[in-house]
TrEMBL record:
Residues 7-441 form the Aldehyde dehydrogenase domain. GO terms for biological process: aldehyde metabolic process. Signal peptide: none annotated. The keyword NAD applies. The lineage of its organism: Bacteria, Pseudomonadati, Pseudomonadota, Gammaproteobacteria, Pseudomonadales. GO terms for cellular component: cytoplasm. Keywords: NAD, Oxidoreductase. This is Aldehyde dehydrogenase. GO terms for molecular function: aldehyde dehydrogenase (NAD+) activity. Belongs to the aldehyde dehydrogenase family.
Amino acid sequence: MSANEHVSAADIRTILDKQRAAFLASEPWSAEQRIELIGRAIALLAENEQAIVDALTADFGHRNAMFSRGSEVLSPLASLKQTQAELAKWMQPEARKTEAGEAWVQYQPLGVVGIVTAWNVPGNMVFKGLAGALAAGNRVMIKPSEFNPHTSALIAKLIASVYAEDEVAVITGGPEIGQAFCSMPFDHLLFTGATSIGKHVLRAAAENLVPVTLELGGKSPTIISRSADFQAAASKIVVGKLLNAGQLCVAPDYVFVPEESVEAFIAIAKAVVAKMFPTLKDNPEYTSVINTRHYERLLGYLDEAHEAGVELTELNPAGEDLSQAHNKIVPTLLRNPGDHLKVMQDEIFGPLLPIKPYKTIDEVLAFINARPRPLGLYWFGSDAAEEALVLKRTTSGGVTLNGVMSHAGIESLPFGGVGASGMGNYHGIDGFRTFSHAKAVFRAG
């Protein structure tokens, strides 16, 4: 049933009840059992690397195979192995100070955890969520995105091949199934997706008082300080923006550039793209936009900006016509687009990069703080006072200094958003704690 496209809400509830009954029927899994369960996921990834890469290529049309291997196989493999190595330590009771008797925190599994993943890096999300949920000793139900039919079907098949349905189950299907899934009385729900959908998820979960971790993305600002190594900063930003054609929740969304350096930024961006992607149209390393809906959405941003008189710089080294390529969009710089334009209102999730010229760091901070809190924030520079100011005066899910997106890949750091970009976090010990109940225990003296 777990790989069946035609499941109903009743079927989902049946699996949930089956998992909860199995959870309650026995003692919590020991560290050894949890290590073994995680080991099965490690074997799946190691043995099916090419099948996973191929499925993602089929879903996107064109997708950089090296990126797929890194993001969907190697990164979650590292997370699963690190979780295996550390979970016994995480499980230990944590002593707390008391004047009399004994006090400690005991970490207990919650029961059944639901995980809903997005389409942009599905393998990464499924297996990193699974790592934390299994480390905490939970049964797990997973709903991958319908926008990745090949990848979702493969994940369902692989999971079903090594886990019993009362251990880990995958539910596939469209929006109605997703809605039914999020309405189930899980013991915790992890959702990754758009802020607009996150509101519906939170509303559905509230009916059953299900605690929710939301990873919602957002418009992650990037700042190049006047103290930065400008060449290195601009290069890293452009490379980061074009990974997965900008379809990453922590992608740099727009960049603040000192007003006197805008032309230099554009020149560096042209050189970086010419080196990375000398051609775009038939280049399998240049990833397509996931589907026609998102492709047309991005073209709509460009059309609106063009009509508003925004200067657009296409980064198209071979001057190709991409209109007949499969959902491929030319990387494009937008020079100082107005704040009312959709490209400055919505999370871009594509290879478009607005450039915002600035005079002072104070105006940059004011601009960022006047908007919803982003998932990531990136600052390039060597001025310690300015770095401290940016860290103190802005609030974001995470920060990478002198780089982009890297904080999301550090397993020892919590990953999640704040405000409109989400709530709660996971990865590493923070994932273990998110999917555990921290039970206060006191023994009287």
